[in-house]
User: What shape does this take?
Amino acid sequence: MPGIASKFDKAYENLSLEELAKAPVAALEGVSESDAEHLAAAFNIKTVADLGTNKFFLWAQAVAKLAE
Assistant: This one.
């Protein structure tokens, strides 16, 4: 999985994709614990999988792609 490891904090870089999906959202490079708390409070996002499958984020991504 070249490239994906650089998107996560060092402690998570050797995990499988399944483990990364279950990792806390703060495991993503650049997402602080405070950011993670805000995502949990606003959208009930606790894991990387939650973030990647959140309907609001998916809708926003679709709009952004269609607008290109």
Notes: Residues 11 and 27 are 8 Å apart (CA to CA). The mean pLDDT is 95. The two ends are 28 Å apart (CA to CA).
